[in-house]
Amino acid sequence: MNDLLVWLGVDGWRPVLAALVLPPAPFIVAIVVGARLMASRRLLAWFLILVSCLGLWFGSTMAAATALRHWLLPPVRALGASEIAELKKAPHTAIVVLGGGRETLAPEYGVSDLAPLSVERLRYALWLGHETSLPVMYSGGVGYGAREGATEAEAAARVAARDFGRPLRWQEAESRDTRENALRSLAFLRTQGIERIVVVTHAYHMPRAMRNFERALRASGAPAGSIRLVAAPMHVQPPRPLQLIDFLPTRIGHYDTQLVLHEWLGLLIGA
Asked: Could you give the CA distance from residue 186 to residue 267 in angstroms, rounded to a whole number?
């Protein structure tokens, strides 16, 4: 599906399509339809309204986010101490951070800045780079639907040097989504003689990220086994018992549910 959108030249509409398909938009539409049917088909109308209200409620709970993550997304695990130790001895290896958004202008700094998700990814990648002495590359331009301005990679380079005191080795500032992150990063790193790529992103995003890197590797025509991919997810959530608060609507519950459904939709359409 994603390849079809790219072929049709409408891939830039994906943020709009996702906003219409993902909650709460479908539930709101169903409530409006139910209200319209109240006079003629009362039973169906009440069914639509009640189901939509339940969807809005549970779609904003951590219980729903946890269940959907378990059902819809492949499991991932964080790098262990032994794997990090192995990376210290791995030649021709680079760490690639995938962008997670940027602010066109942060008034407090007077320049563009990274979104919180991007800062979290960058922080972990720089820590991993410090632990392994590996070079770090940031991949991110101006995403679909975002305002024009400084690229995400430019903001990342500034934050890495200014706030963490660890300059980036490379920047990739042309990609607009995960697919292009993979294609452009891989193409550049091959010219640098890199044989192993450590991909850094959030745990919920890692399955889609790794699939895109694997597809990019196949499309590049590189010999099998010439480049190895290593997943380095962050914010891996260990299992925990649910509490009463997890069944109540919260801002974090809504946010996490949206993230899981967004990633599942991306996997479904091949984005």
From this structure: 20
Q: What global pTM score does this model have?
A: 0.90
- The CA-based angle 73-208-267, given to 5 degrees, is 65
Long-range contacts of 82-91 (CB under 8 A, 24+ apart): 83/230, 84/128, 84/131, 84/132, 87/128, 87/132, 87/134, 87/198, 87/230, 88/131, 88/132, 88/133, 90/132, 90/134, 90/196, 91/195
How many Å apart are CA 173 and CA 68, to the nearest integer?
Answer: 33
For residue 221, the model assigns a pLDDT of 83
Could you tell me the pLDDT band of residue 11, with boundaries at 50, 70 and 90? low
Which residue type does 128 have?
Answer: L
Instruction: Tell me if 144 sits within 8 A of 101, measured CB to CB.
Output: no
Average pLDDT over residues 241-261: 96
Strand stretches in the chain, DSSP E: 93-98, 102-106, 111-114, 136-139, 170-172, 196-202, 228-234
pLDDT tens digits, one per residue of 17-71? 888 889 999 999 999 999 999 999 999 999 999 999 999 999 999 999 999 999 9
Domain 81-234: CATH superfamily is HUPs (3.40.50.620)
* N-to-C CA span, the chain: 8
Residue given tokens 């500034």 in the structure block: 158
Residues whose CB falls within 8 Å of the CB of residue 186, separated by 6 or more in sequence, listed in order: 197, 213, 216, 217, 220, 227
Domain with CATH 3.40.50.620 in the chain: 81-234
